[in-house]
Structures are given as C-alpha cells and as structure tokens.
Design brief:
597 residues; alpha+beta; five-stranded antiparallel β-sheet; 15 helices
C-alpha cells in the first residue's frame, strides 16, 4: 500500500466506521489481528489487519473471517497471550471517535473513546489512540495513551533492534523518521520548478522525482512523467511535469479515488488508488473495485494464495532435492561396488599367482613382483599388494574371498544400480513438474502423489508419536510478561510449569533464573535473536520476578542466580523442579514486580 492508497482506505473507513463500537479483538496469527465492530447503523463488520513484513494490509469486511475465535486460539495456545489480553482490555467496548489520515504517510490513527469500566483499567485516560503503521517490514499496530505513551503493540521493538525508535510499553510514541525529501503538498509551481533545477541527467526523471519528493514511490513518479509526455506539446517539459504533478496531487487532495489492482508485466501485482496512464505490458487487465477494502482484500487473497503456492513448491522442491541427493549418492556407491565386483576374475588370478610363488614370499612383505602367469606370452610382470601381517597363504585366501564375494554380489549390484537409476530419473521428473507448476490445487495433488509414492513423508509420518493430552504443553501453568526491552519473560506457576519451562520450552540461549537458597518459580527470558548478552534492565526485572515468586518474597532484598539455559540441566530421575547449574551469576534485587503488572 502506498500513501495514496492508504488515504483512499482512510476516507472509506472514516465514512463507514466512525462512531462504531469495538468488540473483543483477537489475534488470528502472530501478525494478524481482527477487530469486530458494531456500526452506528447497527450492522456488524470486521476490521482485518496484517502487519506481516512481506505484505501488510488493512481492510474492512462484512462477514466474520476464518473460523471460531476460541477454537483457533485454543489450538494455537494463545488464550493467555499478553499482547492479546492487553489489546482486549483496552479496546473492548471503546468507540471510534475519529479516524485521522497522516498526509503522505502510510499511517492511520483511530482516536478511541473509553467508557467508565475501561477507565478503571487504564487510569485517567478518557481516550487512547490505535495507530496502524502500514509500512512494509516495519508495519505495526500500536496503542498509545492520550499523553502519547505506548500502552501495547502487536510487535515490540527494543533498543537493540532500533536505537532511534523503541516500541515498548511506557515509552513515548514517535512517528517513523522521515527521509530528507520535500513535502509534495507544500510545493508551488515556483518551488517545484526550483526543485527541477537540481536535475543533472544522471538518473531518469521518475527516479529523480521519487528521490526528491516525499510520498511518491517509483510507480507514482513514473505516472507523473507519463502524463507529462502527453502535455509536452502544449508546454516545455518542466511545465508539463508540474501540470501532471498537480493533476495527481489534486486527486489526493480531493480524494477522488478509484481503487484497484494493477497487474505488471513481470507477473507481480500492486494496489493503486486511481487508474494509471502508464503504457505497461500487463498479463491481465487492471481491475477496479467499489472501495479500497474490496481491492485490498482481493489483493490479500491473491497474495496469500501466491505465498501458499511458493511455500508448498519450496517445501516439495526441498524434499525432492534431498531424496535426489540420496539417490545419487547410492548410485555413485553402487557404481563403485560394480567396478570392484567386475574385478572378480582379477582377484582370483592374484590369489593363484600368490600361491604359485608362495615359497618365495616371506611374511612381512607388502607386495609381490612376479611374472604374470596368465599372460599368453608370459612376458608381462605384475605387482600384487600384500598385507605384511598375514602369511602368504592368508594373503591368497583374502583374494579368494574377495573373488567369491564379488561374484555373488555382481548380479545384485547390477539390479540395484538399474533400480536407483530409475529412481534418479523419476525424482528428476518430479522436480521438473513441481518447479513448473503454479497452481496450488495441482501442487497439493503432486504432494499427495509424492506421499503415496513414499518419496516424501506426511505430517503424521514425520510426527509418529503425538503427545498424549496429559503431556501437552499447557500455558495455564506459566505466567507471561514483557520486559522493558521488549523481551518475553516466562514464569512457572507450579512444579509442572517449572518443568515445562526448563525442560520443554527453554532453548540454550535463553536466560534462566531462580531465587538462591529459596524454593520458588523457574523464570526464563526468551532470547529468539540469540543475543550474547541480555540487556541489564531485563535481567533485573526477571530476577525480581524470580524473587517475588519464591519463599524470599517478603524479604527486603533477595539473591537470585541466573545462567544461560545451556548451563542448566535436570538430573535423570530428579524430582520436579530440581536442576543443576554448571555456571551461574548472582544478583541482589527487591521482590517488586509492580512495573510489570
């Protein structure tokens, strides 16, 4: 979505859902969130937002998306997800008082009015802001107070990921940094003409405009240049560029949009907010929709299917490639075996020659040089390797054994080689078929056929021993928090939760905590980015949690030991909760967790 399309979407949402009451939002997946809305007219609609880095998209839909919320959340184990809980507590029952479009930005701000019950939860705030940042890999949805402090976000951004702009609870919200470009809405014909004076011909006109003017991507800059070409006959080129630029800015200012999907010559697609005049060779004609939500939803559907096709194709290609490598390795090994087996007669001859010269060979010799008795003219000489640790008769016997083994295995090896050659050809054929296929349905049929052939394994075959219900990992035994640095902190509620935390959830680079010399909960700081050093504020918070949920809870200060999980292990047969630390560090903290509640 570019800034033009975001404005088209913002205008649509202003008209459709201003004054709507928000129901209980839910996370459909880690990057997807859905807001059920009751409009002022009494109709129920749903606002869908995905901040997936590959394709962020926001749109309004009338029917309930996907399946039942509770069942899907239960299947994913996300009922107690802290982000979801926070978003639900703040937003459920709130009213969309205003929707603001940030000019020439891909940002929409929903100003929400809270009722009395929500004020009890959020303190003195009568209003909060729901901010949608629809910006590629940095896309996010953020809740802020009326004072501009971040309350929650779908994706937290700690300092080690972005020093300029952290997205963490309690931090002040800052708009994304703007590039050093000119605001297009502030340009006059005179200032636009002055801007064009900097053009030196080293870049194309579309590239120059895109680099100098904010809110223009390369496609929109190309559209300005295309429209300018048709006006060159009426005026000079720079004047024509200004006229074309004014036309497009007029569409933006007035909001006279006709959203749709543009199919480009390279097979890719993109959303557009008004019909373009660029002469692009396209696979399919452009498609216009009634509103931006319809265009975005259709685009998302097509993109989702394309991603599903790519993921399935990549999966099948990888599995076939692995099977093909194994088959080729077996083929190579069988070819070597065949080469040795075809030397069977040579082994027998070598054994016979050793026996013929047995009285001339002494133990300890590593080779025999003799006349080749099987040469018709008996003039050629032969060198036969010997094992110096064996007697001459034992060396001969060794060659006779090789001869017997080679003769017996020759036919078997030949048949196996024929079979593996057929397998290599078959796998190569499968590989070509998968690589050339672009239909999801056909790829699914190919996957099923490959599973039936035994070339790849099904999900059930890859996981033959599913956990019993009593063994399933349950997060009802684990508390979840987010540190000031945006890292997830898990706390075991009981022995079962402690064991699950330490033995099933923890990875070697996670940081593990426990109150020193006091019974208590196991605490874990998740470290998905494998940071060599966890930020110190997070260490203090995690240690405070370990002290608070322990027998040292009422002490003024408590000692807490911590170490990376790779240094923590549970002895075989040990009681629940008992672990051994081979390395550890201690810290003295107050058992105070108010800043985490």
């Amino acid at each position: 979505m570019d800034s033009f399309f975001v404005k088209a979407l913002g205008l649509e949402l202003q008209s459709a859902i201003t004054g709507a009451r928000i129901g209980k939002p839910w996370l459909e997946a880690p990057y997807h969130i859905i807001f059920p809305l009751m409009t002022r007219g009494g109709s129920r609609v749903y606002l869908y937002y995905s901040c997936h880095p590959a394709f962020p998209v926001l749109y309004l839909m009338e029917e309930r998306p996907f399946g039942k919320e509770k069942e899907r959340n239960k299947a994913r184990g996300q009922q107690n997800d802290q982000v979801q809980v926070l978003i639900q507590k703040y937003l459920t029952g709130s009213v969309i008082a205003e929707i603001q479009v940030i000019n020439m930005e891909r940002i929409l701000i929903f100003r929400l009015h809270l009722d009395n019950s929500q004020r009890d939860f959020s303190g003195e705030h009568a209003e909060i802001n729901l901010i949608f940042e629809i910006m590629g890999r940095n896309a996010n949805v953020i809740l802020t107070s009326d004072q501009g402090l971040i309350l929650a976000a779908l994706r937290y951004v700690p300092a080690y990921k972005n020093r300029y702009r952290q997205i963490l609870p309690g931090h002040a919200y800052r708009f994304p940094p703007k590039p050093a470009k000119v605001d297009p809405l502030s340009l006059t014909e005179e200032s636009f003409s002055q801007l064009l004076e900097a053009y030196d011909g080293t870049a194309s006109w579309p590239n120059f405009l895109q680099q100098k003017i904010a809110g223009l991507d390369l496609l929109m800059a190309g559209e300005i240049c295309q429209r300018a070409e048709s006006k060159d006959k009426l005026s000079d080129h720079k004047r024509a560029l200004w006229m074309a630029f004014s036309e497009i800015l007029d569409i933006y200012r007035k909001g006279t949009f006709s959203p749709g999907i543009l199919y480009l010559e390279d097979g890719t697609m993109r959303l557009f907010s008004f019909p373009l005049e660029q002469q692009l060779r396209r696979q399919l004609p452009d498609r216009i929709f009634e509103n931006a939500s319809q265009a975005a939803r259709q685009f998302g559907k097509i993109q989702h299917e394309k991603n599903a096709v790519q993921e399935l194709r990549d999966h099948l290609t990888q599995r076939i490639h692995l099977a093909l490598d194994k088959a080729k390795a077996r083929q190579s090994a069988l070819e070597e075996d065949l080469s040795r087996a075809e030397q069977a007669d040579q082994y027998r001859k070598q054994g016979d020659i050793i026996m013929a010269y047995v009285h001339q060979i002494k133990k300890g010799m590593d080779h025999l040089e003799a006349r080749d008795l099987f040469d018709p003219q008996q003039k050629a000489s032969i060198t036969i390797p010997l094992d110096p640790l064996l007697t001459p008769a034992q060396n001969a016997q060794g060659y006779y054994k090789k001869y017997t083994k080679a003769r017996k295995s020759l036919e078997i090896i030949r048949q196996r080689l024929v079979d593996v050659q057929k397998e290599v050809l078959l796998l190569s054929s499968w590989q070509s078929r998968v690589a050339a296929e672009s239909s999801l349905a056909v790829l699914q049929e190919l996957r099923d056929a490959l599973q039936e052939e035994g070339i790849i394994q099904s999900e059930e075959q890859r996981n033959p021993s599913p956990q019993k219900p009593s063994e399933k990992l349950s997060f009802k035994d684990i508390r979840r928090y987010v540190s000031v640095d945006g890292l997830e902190i898990l706390v075991g509620k009981n022995d079962r939760g402690n064991d699950a935390l330490t033995c099933k959830i923890a990875r070697k680079d996670d940081l593990w905590f426990h109150a020193q010399d006091a019974a208590g909960s196991h605490v874990l700081v998740r470290n998905p980015d494998r940071l060599p050093q966890i930020p110190y504020p997070t260490i203090v918070q995690a240690a405070s949690l370990a002290a608070f949920f322990s027998k040292a809870r009422n002490d003024t200060k408590a000692a807490v030991a911590y170490a990376f999980k790779k240094y923590v292990s549970k002895p075989k047969g040990a009681k629940p909760g008992l672990v051994v630390m081979t390395q550890k560090t201690s810290i003295l903290v107050s058992p105070d967790i108010r800043d985490l509640q």
